[in-house]
Amino acid sequence: MYKRIDNAIAVRKQELKIKENRDENFGGGRSNKISKPVEELVMKWDADPQIQNFNNFRNLVDEMLTELDDLNQLIFHYRWIDSNRYTWEEIADKCKLTERQIYRKRRAILELYDDKTGGFW
Q: Where are the alpha helices (DSSP H) in 48-96?
């Protein structure tokens, strides 16, 4: 999900932009409200709970990545960012670790994420 978060935000913004293009002035007469479509659209994006959740998730993972050491960042990249979608065994080979070590590293990454999200486990 993390590697596609920017795309998900862009898609949601387009959905809101398309929904926004409707005419509320049915009579065809003058409108008594000042039209600021760009400002209204940006306000709609800022208020959208789905976009807020996507941004919160991205910020949380970005913050978490700054707390990981270089090896754990590399492991995170191989597993959750790289398009190859490596298995844990392949990641262990690439990082020259045993499977037991890679699973310990994975647990540490997931526990850090859990701590950042408020501790579900």
A: 49-67, 70-76, 88-94
